[in-house]
């Protein structure tokens, strides 16, 4: 199995190194990752300026491509150009330092890299670990490898898109895997206004809880319970129910 590994924390991130080591138990791993951290860039791509890709060497041999673009750029460039004649069986993005659960999926560069892989019809998995100063990426990578190994063994997972989140508690002891939907509640709606020494206003985004709590089945709740969560995603944003309704609407130009 040929595996493309990307992330949004940058090519030198410890989460990527730990995951690469474990994925090598499953097959050949090719690393194409951003040159610098790209957290929160979502599914942005570079098209107004050229992309460059620098070969990173270890022990005298090519180890990875460092791309001066977004996570989505990395996957697009890898599949469409760098390895266009060597197709991948799996795209993995991570391990991100910080959960990508709930509505944060929409902002995540980690998830975006996996979405880009799914665009190309390749089974793709985004992997994130709860933020902690002493995050155990090695333990999280073992969990990720086990889950991914189970996923790819299922024929009906082919070309699927999956979001895997690992709480800190799961790296310290036994944890259950919950297949759950993403929470849709809006976190972090508020900003704190401050003034800099020059008298200019600036704003810090705050982490605030949603007005209505998420349902018990949502990924964000299960992660708080210490469970690993796995969510199947899709990139088709069409609302099929409303699409049918709108065909009956008397809309005119």
Structure write-up:
With 253 residues, this protein is an alpha/beta fold. It has a single domain, classed as Stationary-phase Survival Protein Sure Homolog, Chain: A. Helices cover 25% and strands 26% of the residues. The chain is built from six helices and eleven strands. Strands 3-4-2-1-5-6-7-11-8 form a nine-stranded mixed beta sheet, sandwiched between helices. Strands 9-10 form a two-stranded antiparallel ribbon. α2 packs parallel to α3.
Helix content: 10-25%
**Number of helical stretches of at least 4 residues:** 6
Which sequence of strands runs across the widest sheet? Answer: 3-4-2-1-5-6-7-11-8
Mean pLDDT: 95
Looking at the overall shape, the CATH architecture is 3-Layer(aba) Sandwich
Short description:
The protein is 25% helix and 26% strand.
Keywords:
single chain; 253 residues; alpha/beta; Stationary-phase Survival Protein Sure Homolog, Chain: A; two-stranded antiparallel ribbon; 6 helices; globular
Please write out the topology.
Elements: E1 2-6, H1 14-23, E2 28-34, E3 53-58, E4 61-67, H2 71-82, E5 90-97, H3 109-119, E6 123-129, H4 137-152, E7 161-166, E8 177-179, E9 191-195, E10 201-205, H5 219-224, E11 228-233, H6 240-246
Parallel strand pairs: 1-2, 1-5, 2-4, 5-6, 6-7, 8-11
Antiparallel strand pairs: 3-4, 7-11, 9-10
Helix pairs in contact: 1-4, 2-3
């Amino acid at each position: 199995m040929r595996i493309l590994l990307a992330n949004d924390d940058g090519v030198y991130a410890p989460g990527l190194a730990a995951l690469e080591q474990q994925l090598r138990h499953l097959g050949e791993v090719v690393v194409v990752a951003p040159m610098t951290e790209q957290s929160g860039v979502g599914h942005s791509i570079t098209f107004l300026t050229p992309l460059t890709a620098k070969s990173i060497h270890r022990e005298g041999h090519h180890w990875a491509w460092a791309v001066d673009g977004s996570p989505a750029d990395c996957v697009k460039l890898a599949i469409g150009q760098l390895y266009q004649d060597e197709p991948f069986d799996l795209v993995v993005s991570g391990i991100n330092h910080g959960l990508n659960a709930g509505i944060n999926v929409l902002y995540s560069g980690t998830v975006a890299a996996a979405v880009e892989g799914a665009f190309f019809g390749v089974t793709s998995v985004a992997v994130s670990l709860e933020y902690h100063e002493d995050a155990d990426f090695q333990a999280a990578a073992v969990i990720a490898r086990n889950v991914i190994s189970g996923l790819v063994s299922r024929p009906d997972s082919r070309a699927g898109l999956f979001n895997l989140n690992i709480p800190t508690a799961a790296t310290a002891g036994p944890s259950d895997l919950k297949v759950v939907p993403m929470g849709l509640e809006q976190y972090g709606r508020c900003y704190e206004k401050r003034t800099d020494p020059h008298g200019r206003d600036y704003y810090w985004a705050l982490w605030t809880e949603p007005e209505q709590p998420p349902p018990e089945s949502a990924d964000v709740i299960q992660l708080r319970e210490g469970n690993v969560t796995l969510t199947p995603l899709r990139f088709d944003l069409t609302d099929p129910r409303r699409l049918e309704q709108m065909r009956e609407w008397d809309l005119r130009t």
